[in-house]
Amino acid sequence: MGKKLIVEKGLFTERGDALLGRKCRGCNRILPPLTEMCCQCFSSDLEGIPLSKRGKLFSYTVVHVPVKNFQPPYAIGWIELPEGLVITSQIKGWEEKHLEIGMDMEFIVEKLWEENGEEIIGYKFQPV
Amino acid sequence: MRKVAVIGVGMTMFGKMPERSLVDLGTEAVRAALKDSGVSPKNIQVCYCANYAHIVWCLAQEIGSKVGITNIEMFNVENACAGGSTAFRGVWYAIATGMYDIGLALGVESMTTSSLAGRAITSETDLDGQLGLSMPARAALRMKRHMAKYGTKPEQFAQIAVKNHDHGSLNPYAQYKKKFTLEEVLNSRMIAEPLTLYQCCPNSDGAAAAILCAEDKVSQYTSKPVWIAASVLKSPGYLALQKDITLSNLTEQCIHEAYEQAGVGPEDLDFVELHDAFTNSELYLYEELGLCPVGEAGRLVDEGATALGGRIPVNPSGGLLAQGHPLSASGVRQICEIVWHLRDQAGARQVPGAKVALAHMEGGMVFGLGSAACSVHILKG
């Protein structure tokens, strides 16, 4: 089956092994993936920087109603990265391991759903 | 800025009424407000009308034409759940600044005949939406944080739904007039742990209208004016600049500004109508309003402090949970509710001796901003 990234460009590093944050060349602020303008100084001179692959579980829930791309139940949460960013992520491994706010989580590249005969590749975080 | 009062209000029942059009709903609310105020349609000088879910043009003009309000300055506005409050503020502003003396604020929503019928409102195009972060999922994430930080229990969130449905059972305009036990709320369909179905506001249709008047004309119409002591409408700053994304700087700013404008603090409020789209929205707002210290909202629930009869009733109407939530109508509906209490006309759900009340609405979810519009009004009778 063909593969396609959930976001064509700029979500992951070139090697596809980490999330690509942005660093503002104007004020050095670290910004979330896909940011196009610095929210602090409004510069659009941003460089891509790989973000940490480890973070803390800021919050999570298990969802029991379907949305466009996912059948329930699925787990989704917020991951706090050491760079001071909070990232939305689906969570893998919630059925096997008891989730707790504050626990250590790690980034993985993962298929999210299938569409038009293609696998849509994104990311999840799972307990370390 | 001149003093402005609400001199008339009117609304439709809220509920699922797919057989009724936007114009039909809006017309009923406007007629009721005109009757309540004694104002002739000819005397309305400015009108703001809020709607979100339909692709419709010139709704204010069309509804106006059905009731004899024509050839005046009219605005059609949208601000998600804060649309009705936005319309109300617009009319307040037009009168307070001296441009007009009498105006009409209207909010109309027919969700069951819109493309949102039967669905939760979820952005499907931004990354959060694509990853499955729906509004109820986001609510659940905030609940879990509060539980982890302060020991708040699922039962305390659920009790808010019990309370609001108790209130709704006393409200002839409410979509839901049935009471629920705590077990029924907790055991209703699980949406996103621990948020259950009865802890989420429904899809609704309805309209609400308010007529506002400048200070020097008020006595021609009523001996019981309800004065607008504060009006705030604001958009948020960037989420990335916030210290904690589960809290809302926007909400706190708006509430603080409203208290300053009105010269009151939380201890001066007799009751509150707020945006309880989910039970956790209301729980967090207890702290954001300063009704209790941060972290102690669960205790406030346990004490029954925010139920009718308690020291600071919240959502005596039943709130969005039981009254229903036709998005653009809710902000004006809150004004109707507050006016009735301040005039001692709220019947079985009357907050006795009410003199000062606060109305809060917020809504819209924009990637990178969070909740995108917040509006707070304080009214004094």
Structure description:
The complex is a heterodimer of chains A (128) and B (381). By secondary structure, chain A is mainly beta. In chain A, 0% of the residues lie in helices and 48% in strands. Chain A has one domain. Chain B is built from twelve helices and eleven strands. Chain B has helices at 22-37, 59-67, 83-96, 127-130, 135-150, 154-168, 182-187, 249-262, 279-288, 297-303, 319-323, 327-342, and strands spanning 4-11, 46-50, 73-77, 102-110, 190-192, 195-196, 205-214, 226-234, 271-273, 356-366, 370-380. In chain B, helix 6 crosses helix 9 (279-288) and helix 6 (154-168) crosses helix 10. The radius of gyration of chain B is 19 Å and the shape is globular. The model of chain B has no long low-confidence stretch (mean pLDDT 96). The interface between A and B is medium-sized, with 36 and 32 residues.
How many domains comprise the coordinates of chain B? 2
Shape of chain B: globular
CATH architecture of the largest domain in chain B: 3-Layer(aba) Sandwich
Q: Unreliable segments of chain B (pLDDT under 50, ≥5 consecutive)?
A: none
As laid out across the biggest beta sheet of chain A, the strand order is 5-6-7-9-8
How much is the radius of gyration of chain B in Å? 19 Å
End-to-end span of chain A in angstroms?
Answer: 30 Å
